[in-house]
Amino acid sequence: MPILIVWGRHDKSISLDIGLRMHRILKGSRLEVLEESAHCPNYEQPEEFNQIVTRFLAGRKARR
Question: Among all residues, which ones are annotated catalytic?
Fold first, then answer.
């Protein structure tokens, strides 16, 4: 199952260490870290977030 993890580098609620741990546990997952975001990267950096999701979905579609 394809899994995309998008994390904000400055998240004070849930540290990046948790995202890194999730990425290690979820084999084959993809971790993207938005450097200027905190807890809500989709709100704080919407254009970058949408580009990440679009690339991920396009890559999945191409593999079918």
Answer: 39
d(CA 36, CA 50) in angstroms, rounded, equals: 15
Nearest to 11 by CA among 19, 3, 23: 19
pTM, two decimal places: 0.88
d(CA 48, CA 50): 5
Q: What angle is formed at CA 15 by the lines to CA 26 and CA 35, rounded to 5 degrees?
A: 90
- Distance separating alpha carbons of residues 20 and 31, to the nearest angstrom: 8
Residue 63 reports pLDDT greater than 90: no
Instruction: Find the angle CA(35)-CA(39)-CA(49) to the nearest 5 degrees.
Output: 55
